[in-house]
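Q: Structure tokens for this one, please.
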Amino acid sequence: MFDRYEAGERAVLVHIHFSSEDDREDLQELEMLVSSAGVDSVAVVTGSRNVPHPKYYVGEGKAEEIAQAVLQHEANVVIFNHALSPAQERNLEQLCQCRVLDRTTLILDIFAQRARTYEGKLQVELAQLRHLSTRLVRGWTHLERQKGGIGLRGPGETQLETDRRLLRARIKNILARLEKVSKQREQGRRARQRAEVPTISLVGYTNAGKSTLFNRVTTAQVYAADQLFATLDPTLRRLEIQDVGPTILADTVGFIRHLPHDLVAAFKATLQETHDAQLLLHVIDCSDDRVSDNIEQVQLVLDEIGASEVPQLLVMNKIDEVEGIQAHVDRDDEGVPIRVWISARQNVGIDYLMQAIQERLSGTMVEQHIMLPPTAGRLRSQLYQLDAISEENMDEQGNWLLDIRVPQVEWARLCKHYDELPDVVNSQDTD
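A: Here is the predicted structure, written as tokens:
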């Protein structure tokens, strides 16, 4: 469809330092993105500017330097660590005689490689088409744009207009499919809410160790690797938490600074699991020099998807890579866990994490001494399933005398299903 140079595996990276904090990117992060995409970096061109150049983004001299680096290293793609306009990409490709990608296109390419599920592939394609729709002006440079002439009088629209119409139709089709998937997810969420099953969502900067932690605390075999965006498709698993009962743990896509808005919009159905969660486990790579900056970037994305008000428990991961830090729990002035220090890879501190999750989710525990008649065998069985019975005796009439300890949520549910339950309570609720 497009008269474009083929992308290869040898890349020249371009990183420009700007005086403005908002425009700053990280060169090390670009190198990790390129590595995650399966591309070899053969040269890095750096420079500094106050503002981007309108024609080449970099100055004309720096643009010539990039073109020389492409020739010298026989590179076949130039990757900018910044967002380029369609005109800047076109001008740079004409100068360098090779494909030029910006940061957004690179991230989209990585997402396209990682997508495995039907929903994930649709979301990535939607983001790619939205990004592509702004770059259609670059296509079809070798064809007549206007249909005409004897026997060729068509709808009277230019080739560019035809492309835009086809893109709009495809985007509309994908949105309809995603809407159907979103409704299916919503049904699952409503079912969990009716059953009062809490959801815990893993969030954090990309490559913070979310999938490794997810595999550690569940029986899942989610793909985990030391690379950016190793996880793309969301995974849900059942998790049993003491004094809480069954919960759902959700592994989600990692965030990154300046995450393309098209991606955030495309992945809203997936990120809804984060929005509706009862607790967010914010996984942080404590060995990273940019810890505070990464936390800030995650908060910005959470604000964008409306999940900033969901309670968070900070999980400081990879303590095995930092000298002098032991697994422990940090608490606030009221004794509530706010931060847990662990190493998911080395299986260190996981028990501290589970205890902190239990404290954050369990809330009030109900302790009761109850007497059940012999006809209440079904209720007794359910109490055993909840692991709520701490002691059991039987009186002369065959009644069961039970000491139970159960979360307030489970107790309220039992009282709703068994009308006779409040009548058999012999003691007051205690925390």
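A few notes: The first strand starts at residue 10 and ends at 18. Confidence is low (pLDDT under 50) at residues 1-7, 138-149, 426-431.
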